[in-house]
Amino acid sequence: MTDNFAVQVRGLRMSFGSTEVLHGVDFDVRYGEVFCLLGPNGAGKTTTLEILEGFRPPMAGTVRVLGLDPAAQPGRLRERAGMVLQECGFPRQARVGELIEIWRRYYRNPRPLADLLEVVELTGVRNTQVRRLSAGQRRRLDFALALAGDPDIVFLDEPTTGFDPEARLRCWAAIENLRGLGKTILLTTHYLDEAERLADRIAILRAGRIELCGTTQEVAARAGLATRISFITPPAVRLGQVAPPDGIDMAARGPLSICHTPNAAMTLRQLLGWALENRLGDLDGLTVTAPSLEDTYLQLTGAAPNGGQS
Amino acid sequence: MTRSVRLAARQALLEQRSFWRSAEYALFTFVFPLMILLLIGAANVGSRLPGTDIKNTTVFVPGILAFGVIVAAYVNLGSKVAVLRHDGVLKRIRTTPLPSAAYFGGLLASTVATAILITACTGLIGWLAFGAGPRAGGLPTLAGGLVLGIVCFATLGLAISSVITSAESAGPVAYATFLPIAIISGVFDPTFSGLPAWLSHTVAAFPVKALAQVLQNAYAVRPFPAWDLLNLALWTAAGTAFTAWRFRWHT
User: Fold this and answer.
1) Which chain A residues touch B18 with a CB distance below 8 Å?
2) Does residue A284 lie in a domain region?
3) A79, B89: Cβ pair inside 8 Å?
4) What is the ipTM of this complex?
């Protein structure tokens, strides 16, 4: 293994008792990117993260984080990695600023306090007792503590689970701020919009296996999903005066004509040629939609209302 | 090494600040022993132990000193660690490079500070209100007994924290495992007697009576408490071993 990746995972297996929960997981995380492990509950996301954080030794496989073996060198890893665990409390009577301050002391090269408060937008409550914070503020305090040692990589385990929309947005803003600092971020989530919004690359983990890995577009393309092209059906076509284009499988849905294609450019060229020939103009409402992560995910996890394949 | 000591000191300061910030908790920790000291002490003023010229209060006041040490070290530290574990604070500490020795050193130092403060209050009030103070030459025994007592009951507090399963039950479990023993050890009643022999021997095996007797030795002339010191040392070892065996960072 080389040192070119922030995280390298090869053939990772893990069992609890006689139940194997990870069946050979492989993925890489590049330096400076936001990488998202996406999957339904029980897919093995947290277990994978706990192995990367050095809390569990893997049964088999190789894991490197910042070039370190987490199980063998947990102390060195913790100096350089910030970890936000799923549910993790604070000392009951501590104040925000006070807590971040002592957390900074745990590390050899901490970030300045004012800077930490600013990144997570908690400057206004620095003298508030932690128990008086809202759920969203607490999670941002989690981020501040994870960031206290100015880590090279930050692990976030389901950072916005159970939050209201406003708290999620502020949480996402804080994660964007982390990205802005150039940190490598590995986050797990079962929210598609979260993955789509934050991640540079995504790995879909299902039942202990990585199903797909890549950018949102790559993941969708590799899942074999088609691009959707739609336009407002021209009156001439609706009235039957113009025949639909040859070789393109058009369907009518309400006022729209819709087709799905694996090659959007070629289909578009054909469509526009057909429109020109038949004096249909520029095809009003012409829309090209790349397959969304949601389409991909639902197809993979078999949750799609129709068209699910697994 | 020095960095760990600095970190422990900082942690202890934060713990003390948090302790005093939860006013009712701090007040209760102090008021409970002091109230017992004043109420039961008042009932014993002027009495002497049967068949001796030893004043009841010179036995009773060091008994309450032992009680205060146990509340601060065993009850407070034990329930505190149980709550920290239940709340996930220990789990969070483990995500940092802070050496666990520095963290627990800080918790322990804060416990020692609280215990010493309670001891000072109890001793001072016992002396002012009842004229009961350490005998001439009793100070080394008092200091040694306090150190050993605090360490012993702090390790037992860490041990009991591992068997407490929820934050809600932490306080009750800690009190229930020591108050009955304290009562039949005669901590609250200098003339307490009349236990069946088997029960009296059983109680003597626990460290509560041992600590009380060591401290009583510093107040009134008695035989050197060698067995009691051994008792405390053995319980310290047992508490340490149990903690090492059962300690968990998370629930």
Assistant:
1) 91-94
2) yes
3) no
4) 0.86
